[in-house]
Amino acid sequence: IIRALVSPKNRKENIVACQRIIYQCGLLHGIWNMLTIPTIPAQIIIEVLLNTVGDVVRDNIENQAFVNSVVNTSGAIQESTLFNLLYAMICDEEKSFSLQISILYFLQCYLHKNKIGKSIIIQTLSPQTKNAANQHTMDYFLRSGYLSKDIVASWCSGILLSHLVVDSPKSKEDILEAPSLCHTRVAVLIFICTLLSNSSPSVQALVSIENGIAYIISQIRDQSMEDDRELLIQSLCAFALGLYVIFNNNKIPSCSSESIKQIIEEDIGINLFQ
């Protein structure tokens, strides 16, 4: 019933009104507390709690602020709800696909236009000498999941990283300071494109990576791709190259917007984009 009241299919004003009432009457707090009860069956957590909380907090500053207050990672990181959710989504050997996707859905709703929520997670990615070799941090979970051969864990990590930086220049700058299967490559490219959008520092940082531009161009220029998945990767590379051109601050002459345009016209061929 609660999910029906705040369904994205409803009118915006009705969703906002229901979200406000659910918070004010204490229902959101009660649902959240159920997430911390270890005896709650996983299927209930998947189908009811995570998806319901996600819909209740989506695009609602007040409700997101409540979640910020209960997931804040100050203190024992291993005891935080975010820590447990990321572990279940990425590292738990007994994780189910439906649970992984439900956790990702909740995190997407929670992070939508939520600057504080993004900063709570991003601050765990900052260099921490004491935890450099610690395998029980959110930093470790995200990095290992991002590079994992488990395609679902890699996909979830890449999409989560994208939601951490989308529409947030500050998050893009912060994440730059943090230290190939098809699904993994797509997730990586989606993250890179999100990182590059409206962020000249991100473009400059990625342009500085040796052979970074050369790899993207080689993928675009490859005419032998017939598989739909490879064509998707080629399209994402073309999109990334376009972002290089648009948001380039031209501080590296060899990779300036004009030099990339020249490569497109003379080397790749403008007809490839038509």
Characteristic terms for this protein:
mainly alpha, 67% helix, 0% strand, 274 residues
Task: Give a brief outline of the structure.
It is found in: Golgi apparatus. Keywords: Golgi apparatus. The chain is mainly alpha-helical.
Structural class comes to mainly alpha
Cα distance spanning the termini: 48 Å
Number of strands: 0
pLDDT averaged residue by residue = 83
Identify the overall geometry: elongated
**Count of the separate structural domains:** 2
Instruction: Work out the helix count.
Output: 16
Question: What's the SSE pattern?
Answer: HHHHHHHHHHHHHHHH
Estimated share of beta-strand residues: under 5%
Proportion in helices: 55-70%
* Uncertain residue ranges: 129-133
What composes the largest sheet?
A: none
Rg, Cα atoms, Å: 21 Å
Structure description:
The chain folds into two domains: 2-179, no CATH class; 199-274, no CATH class. It has 274 residues and is an all-alpha fold. The protein is 67% helix and 0% strand. Mean pLDDT is 83; it is low at 129-133.
Write the layout of secondary structure elements.
Blueprint (H helix, E strand, L loop, with lengths): L1 H4 L6 H13 L2 H9 L6 H16 L3 H11 L9 H11 L5 H15 L3 H8 L15 H9 L4 H15 L3 H8 L5 H15 L3 H8 L4 H10 L6 H19 L10 H12 L6
